[in-house]
Amino acid sequence: MPIVEVVDLFKRYGDVPAVDHIGFVVESGEVFGILGPNGAGKTTTLEIMEGLRRPDGGRAVVDGVDVQHHPREVRSRIGMQLQQAGFFERLTVDETLQLFAAFHRRALPVSDVIHRLQLDEKRRARVDTLSGGQLQRLSVAVALINDPRIVFLDEPTTGLDPQARRALWEVIGSFRREGRTVILTTHYMEVIRTHAPGTTVSVLLGGGQVRFDVLPGVQTVQQANGEVILLTSDPLGTVHALMELNRSGEAIFQQLRVEEATLEDVFLQLTGRRLRE
Length: 277
Ligand SMILES: Nc1ncnc2c1ncn2[C@@H]1O[C@H](COP(=O)(O)OP(=O)(O)OP(=O)(O)O)[C@@H](O)[C@H]1O
Ligand SMILES: [Mg+2]
Description:
There is one protein chain. The chain has two domains: 2-192, Rossmann fold (3-Layer(aba) Sandwich), CATH 3.40.50; 197-261, Alpha-Beta Plaits, CATH 3.30.70. Helices cover 30% and strands 30% of the residues. It contains eight helices and twelve strands. It has helices at residues 42-49, 71-77, 93-102, 110-116, 132-144, 162-177, 235-248, 263-271; strands at 2-13, 16-27, 31-34, 57-62, 65-66, 78-81, 150-154, 181-185, 199-208, 218-224, 227-232, 251-260. It has a four-stranded antiparallel beta sheet, covered by helices on one side. The chain has a four-stranded parallel beta sheet with strand order 3-8-7-6, sandwiched between helices. Strands 10-11-9-12 form a four-stranded antiparallel beta sheet. The chain is elongated and about 75 Å long. The structure holds adenosine-5'-triphosphate and magnesium ion. Magnesium ion is lined by residues 42-43, 83, 154.
């Protein structure tokens, strides 16, 4: 049974549809990513699932509870990290987590949560003295404090340097190993790269006319300044066909590179847009 079910969800702000009839299912124990450009409606979708915003249509069921009818019940079962977390500047890290712990019927030991998010050194530091990355980790700590089965994270890795980002992906991975379900939005999708279907084959076209879209396995073709990037489900077949074209003189390729597709490639394939567009 899915732990989250979203059906035909719709939300508009004035005339602007922010969430346009979307639906998806999240299985228990899954790390589920919501990917989209700025303004796509990711935060709005999350906030509806968290019981913080009312949809104009459709429904969301979280852990068997209809969010629209029982938002408080849902909020007691989930952990949430908000994109714009507001903390009391004059409280310390420790006090902040104590405060959030007090909001809940049950809570993990604050020191454990501090340790997991690698904030031990900042335990007694005031929130207004934290760096951006430390604040970000504090907001994830808040999402964990009530020991939730489902954790919602809105852009948890934004503003983190690569090392801190990897560390946070580790933490998110550990949530999953503990049996929690994680629903997150992010632009940094390298962690999901391993799940992204396909491979990219890139060539520098030195001459000739080629219809790349008919080559074996090719799903999308991006072409700019002589560089051609092919997203393919059959990298060997694609490379073989390219070699054949090169050999027969139909085309001249100056470079060839084979890489695992990033989620950016997959996103482009699905939407025809780059992430930042
Ligand atoms: N409270 C609001 N009132 C009016 N419009 C809003 C409000 N909140 C969001 N919007 C609009 O709804 C759309 C979706 O916004 P949302 O914050 O859900 O996007 P997002 O995908 O989370 O973007 P980002 O990647 O920048 O965080 C945007 O066009 C935004 O301007
Ligand atoms: Mg957002």
